[in-house]
Design a protein that fits this description.
With 400 residues, the protein is of the alpha+beta class. It has three domains: 85 residues, Integrase, DNA-binding domain (Double Stranded RNA Binding Domain, 2-Layer Sandwich), CATH 3.30.160.390; 99 residues, Tyrosine recombinase, N-terminal domain (DNA polymerase, domain 1); 186 residues, hpI Integrase, Chain A (Orthogonal Bundle). It contains 16 helices and seven strands. Strand 5 and strand 6 form a beta hairpin. It starts with 7 loop residues before the first helix and ends with a helix.
Length: 400
């Protein structure tokens, strides 16, 4: 066995010189000391009668004992006819491959690829489910090492503590991430898909909130029109609920609105396709009352065309998902904002407005798919009069 020449004390006493030099530990192991003071371990060896050098690591992160251990490992490889340089390169490639095949990396790729075709609310929901449920336990885990049991254990933890719908939705997200990993040849099975219909993730009974009834509109309008200390809601929530009623927009389209979408002069609001459920831009007429509310919000919130109508300090930058629904509950109406759209449909149909115009206003498919394909008009002119009539009808309910 070659004599070991170096000690920790000798290494610490070695000073940098004008030119780099080496301290030998015998058996080809050397410590290189550069003129700038940096130190690193090298192993010299011969293979096929050619001299080669492999770097082992920097000192002092890589200690003397670490260097000797790694040198012994590489010499063992040499005895088996394996070139340490090629072995090190292969290990590095394998490490990078594992890193790029973790659940966290693949899920972020999946989000990036789909974000252009998803609505903002859909992207926000899937990102949130990944962060809250799946990334904490699996972010750094190679996706090939995640089993059906692993997934079920995490999902059941959420399900059993009451977040049943989040657990079920997270299962669907995980299945889509695994499906993407299969398509990109990084996994051969989809354990998340096997959990579909699991008895441990049963669909909970759905509690339906009733739609707003016509006889409730007067009371709701009275409460929403209160001002000052009598108003129990914030200005943004108050105005958001009034706009939901006057326009029939979906909750997420309303909350994420930007000032660039509002045309005060043309009295219309155009929601871009990226924020619509059916990925198609949607223009609605603004009745006089809606314009007044938007002007009030403009004076309070406007800070540029690309800023939000309902700004917030949360991560999305705009009003949170449950704000309007909770506002209704606070006023004593256990209904959803979506229920206002049902109210609009009922009232307008009962008063014999054209059904196709009503469906266009609510961004529903008009008739069957064939009719929808050939129907080019958006009934905008009819919808101007229709929605002004409905806004006036809402206001009249206060008197009654």
């Amino acid at each position: 066995m070659a004599e070991k020449l170096l000690t920790d004390t000798k290494i610490k006493k070695a000073k940098p010189r004008d030119r780099q030099y080496y301290l030998s530990d015998g058996g080809g192991l050397r410590l290189r000391i550069k003129s700038n003071g940096s130190r690193s371990w090298l192993l010299r060896y011969q293979i096929a009668k050619k001299e080669n050098t492999v770097s082992l690591g920097a000192y002092p992160v890589f200690s003397l004992s670490d260097a000797r251990e790694k040198a012994a490992e590489y010499k063992k490889l040499l005895g088996s006819g394996v070139n340490p340089v090629l072995h090190k390169s292969k290990q590095k490639k394998q490490s990078l491959k594992v890193e790029s095949s973790t659940f966290g990396m693949i899920s972020r790729e999946w989000l990036d690829i789909n974000k252009e075709i998803w609505s903002d609310s859909h992207l926000e929901r899937n990102t949130g489910l990944l962060k809250r449920v799946l990334l904490k336990p699996f972010e750094r885990t190679p996706i090939t090492q995640i089993s059906e049991d692993d997934l079920l254990s995490v999902l059941r933890e959420y399900y059993d503590r009451g977040a049943k719908e989040s657990a079920r939705r997270a299962q669907l997200v995980a299945a889509q991430v695994f499906s993407f990993a299969k398509e990109t040849k990084r996994v051969s099975a989809n354990p998340a898909r096997e959990l579909k219909g699991s008895p441990f993730l049963k669909k909970p009974p759905v509690k339906h909130f009733s739609a707003l009834k016509q006889q409730q509109v007067g009371e709701l309008m009275t409460l929403l029109r209160k001002t000052g200390p009598e108003q129990r809601l914030s200005v943004n929530t108050q105005c958001g609920l009034l706009l939901a009623l006057y326009t029939g927009l979906r909750d997420n389209s309303l909350r994420g609105a930007k000032w660039s979408e509002i045309d005060f002069e043309g009295k219309k609001w155009t929601v871009p396709d990226a924020r619509m459920k059916r990925r198609r831009s949607h223009t609605i007429p603004l009745p006089r009352q809606a314009c007044e509310i938007l002007r009030k919000l403009y004076a309070l919130n406007y800070s540029g065309e690309d800023t939000y109508v309902f700004p917030s300090n949360n991560k999305s930058g705009h009003m949170a998902e449950n704000t309007l629904r909770l506002g209704l509950h606070r006023l004593g109406f256990i209904v959803t904002v979506h229920g206002m759209r049902s109210l609009i449909t009922d009232v307008l149909n009962e008063n014999e407005f054209p059904p196709d115009a009503i469906e266009r206003q609510l961004d529903h498919v008009v008739g069957n798919q064939v009719k929808s394909a050939y129907l080019r008009t958006d009934f905008f002119k009819k919808r101007i009069d229709m929605m002004q009539w409905f806004a006036d009808w809402c206001d009249k309910q206060i008197e009654s």
